[in-house]
Amino acid sequence: MTEKVFAVIGTGAIGGYYGARLHHGGHDVHFLFNSDYQHVTEHGLTVDSHYGDYSIDKKQLNAYADTSEMPKADVILIALKTTQNHLLDTLLKPLLKPDSLVMLLQNGIGAEQEIAQHFDLPYVGGGLCFICSNKTGPGHIHHIDYGRITMGLYGEKQTTALDEFAEDLLQAGVDVEIDRNIIDARWKKLLWNIPFNGLSTVLNADTKQMMNCNELVELSRSIMGEVQQAAQTTDTLIEDALIDAMLTNTAKMKPYLTSMLLDRRHQRELELQYMYKNAIDMADKQGVSMPKTQALYQQLCFINQQIKNEG
Amino acid sequence: MTEKVFAVIGTGAIGGYYGARLHHGGHDVHFLFNSDYQHVTEHGLTVDSHYGDYSIDKKQLNAYADTSEMPKADVILIALKTTQNHLLDTLLKPLLKPDSLVMLLQNGIGAEQEIAQHFDLPYVGGGLCFICSNKTGPGHIHHIDYGRITMGLYGEKQTTALDEFAEDLLQAGVDVEIDRNIIDARWKKLLWNIPFNGLSTVLNADTKQMMNCNELVELSRSIMGEVQQAAQTTDTLIEDALIDAMLTNTAKMKPYLTSMLLDRRHQRELELQYMYKNAIDMADKQGVSMPKTQALYQQLCFINQQIKNEG
């Protein structure tokens, strides 16, 4: 086991789950809380998990309301929603060592590059979490199922820190897959997220309802084709067979409400910058247009504006 | 005044209003009713109009439930919603003379060509009604404002019957404008209808809400650009200035609920074939693609399927 300091920025459904797992594995984990801070100092952190419940007593919990009071960390997990990424400018700085490994457990694309350049950091990576987990109350996380992380570094950098972190996760009971190029993994996740998160949100529909309409399946396929073309601009090859397989699997899935539709229903701001705008802009810079994706993004901007106006 | 027989197929907000006007002008008008038939045979037809109320007593009203009982007509006004156009196959035949003038008072594009070819008719035309009128009950129409018709024939045909019909309408108090090429007029109406009917329906929003979102204005402009390109395939020239003017006027308008959004809210089938699919197909045949219009159409298909499933 490594003797590292771990920091979790954003202790919600994702950050709370993986941070508690690492703590359970015997690691030195420090958690940043926002609105739940007072509550966890009195009641600790509770994870009801599919793999066995786990709590961190208030005396054992390294809880903070401010990163400037946290120790500098070897591994920093960022589990904010991307709509909060503008806060990283101030949140991240106090935690950084010259060789900190910063891992973004977030949706979308483009954030690793942004963080790496903004802070001039050598080791920024991303993790795609295939997990079913919710925050059900202050300091209370309900982990329903799954939990695998696909992770990799941004750019051509190599560091043993990533392999060590993977080892720590595995030892703490988290299934990990390393994809050396995080951009590839991110495009492949966007291949599903861009059509299904957006269309389900605009049409207020679950995946089953969507897959029952032939025209909407064709629209989804067509948007996936745009993502496939966009991915090529970063040398990410997506086979047609992957699109077919995703559509076939989605048709077989139980009715599923996407995270963005849940955000809409709970009047939470939508993750449009990293899930849509960055992808469209990256493609556009290489002369690849994504007209149907852009139309969907523009509709989502309208819905997001309504959410913000009503919030 | 001409001594013509007029037939109105579809005596609702549009057909009832213009038919009653012609009747008021002293013409021989025969009305086809559907669900209102029994009621009008007992109570007649009532039009509460912005330009003065007008009723047709049950004894004066030529009401029918079946076109096979109607006299053959010189001028046939078709005022069904286009979602009912499949019924014309049987409805129209009994009314036709070799030189009947068939006028489609409907939205969208492509129906004149279809009717002209299907029945091998020389004189098929269209009328675009700029009118605010509702059916408020059986045999009861509330005409709120406006009423101008822009009309023209399909194809290169010329007939004095169109001018005579225009004269009859004018004399009956209806403002008429003749646009020799009905296709031009239809594309120009679609220029607004395609973005605003569709987007308002998908997003459940009025025009004011839509125009307050910059991204949605850009999407509307971009869809209008696609309609502009599509119109060129039938040699209809739409100037950029018309797009700018329509957007400027829409921004100034009082909040307006489009007819398609009202159809959605009342769970009525949407007019997708003539307002979207025909336009997309016409352009596609000439190698012009309308990706954002098509994405919108595919979303509307989903909503329409929900309406039909719940109906």
Automatic annotation (TrEMBL), chains A, B:
MF terms in GO: 2-dehydropantoate 2-reductase activity
Instruction: Quote the pathway field.
Output: Cofactor biosynthesis; (R)-pantothenate biosynthesis; (R)-pantoate from 3-methyl-2-oxobutanoate: step 2/2
Entry's EC annotation: 1.1.1.169
Q: Name one GO cellular component term.
A: cytoplasm
NADP keyword on record: yes
According to the UniProt entry, where is the signal peptide?
A: none
NADP as a keyword? yes
Enzyme class, top EC level, equals oxidoreductase
Domain (Ketopantoate reductase C-terminal) ranges: 181-300
Reactions the enzyme catalyzes? (R)-pantoate + NADP(+) = 2-dehydropantoate + NADPH + H(+)
Domain Ketopantoate reductase N-terminal per the UniProt entry, residue ranges: 7-154
Query: Which InterPro entries does UniProt cross-reference here?
Result: 6-PGluconate_DH-like_C_sf (IPR008927), 6PGD_dom2 (IPR013328), ApbA (IPR003710), KPA_reductase (IPR013752), KPR-Related (IPR051402), KPR_N (IPR013332), NAD(P)-bd_dom_sf (IPR036291)
The record's listing under SUPFAM superfamilies reads:
6-phosphogluconate dehydrogenase C-terminal domain-like (SSF48179), NAD(P)-binding Rossmann-fold domains (SSF51735)
List UniProt keywords, sorted A-Z. NADP, Oxidoreductase, Pantothenate biosynthesis
Purpose: Catalyzes the NADPH-dependent reduction of ketopantoate into pantoic acid.
Cite the PANTHER family for this sequence: 2-DEHYDROPANTOATE 2-REDUCTASE (PTHR21708:SF26), PROBABLE 2-DEHYDROPANTOATE 2-REDUCTASE (PTHR21708)
Q: What is this protein called?
A: 2-dehydropantoate 2-reductase
